[in-house]
Write a structure and sequence with these properties.
Layout lengths: L3 H23 L1 H50 L7 E6 L7 H9 L3 E8 L9 H9 L15 H15 L4 H12 L6 E5 L7 E5 L11 H19 L4 E4 L8 H6 L9 E2 L5 H15 L5 E2 L39
Length: about 325
Amino acid sequence: MIDFRYHLVSLISVFLALAVGIVLGAGPLREGISDALTGQVQELRTDRDKLRTELDAAGREALGRGNLITAVQPEAVKGVLEGQKVAIVTLPGAGEIEPITTALTQAGAAVVSQTEVSEAMVDAETATFRSSFASQLTTYLETEPAADASTEEILGQALASSFALAGSDQQRATTLTEFLTTNDPAFATIVTPSAEAATAIVVIGAPHAEVKPADAETVRELGRSYTRVANGMAAVLPTLVVGSAQADTDLVALLRASAMAETLPAVDSVASPVAAINAPRALAERLGGGAGQYGIETGATAPLAPHTVAPQPTPPAAEPEGAEPSESPTSEE
């Protein structure tokens, strides 16, 4: 049985060990521990300062490259789109489009319209309604849809047809525009209406945004739907897609991962000087029959599109006098 003397010895041992630790910590060991901690802190501060310096240098270099691209842009795109009339289509989340429109103007093109596409055009919950409605549009389109065309592709064709027919067959163009803009919710919103036919389309998507893993597949499917809309436009007019390809959930990355990449050109790094200088050159190449993937992000085949002058557009045929108005499709759900 443990007696009182055992407890007393144990307590003395504990206090003795504590006293020894205090003496050693305040004496012989103090300098070594203090010096080690001080050295580690100083090393971390040095690493931090080095990384900050490198980050600042990288930022200045990126800014300098952007300024250089912007400075040479007018000369690099001059005349490549002379005489072309471009319709701008923005997808949900698209940011500032002025750098793109400025570059197109510098290239000699006229921006004749701007349209905003809404998520209603690709909403999975209204797939049946959209499919039924799209089937009513085939007689109004500029070109007949492919036999296996998706609903999104037909709706894209309808929008592109409204651009292509403006001025030459204004009644059909108006009918298609009304169909796309009068539903609730509307499939599209006309920001700047066009009074003359477009010869090409530039579709501008959203810049890169972080996506939660749980939402990734939903975002990918939404992006795939928008690529089908753009592919439908391309069946009517030469079309270029501008967006991001930083992650596999981004619009251009999804396009480049599909078979559409063979015929539907795209430019990445949207909202940067890279996209602004590439957009007119890539569109000019498309008008000449080519299709490439340009930029500095995933799937790009070259950082800069070639300097190609687009062929002069063919003037649209005038709308026949006395043409009977077309009957509008039903727009009630």
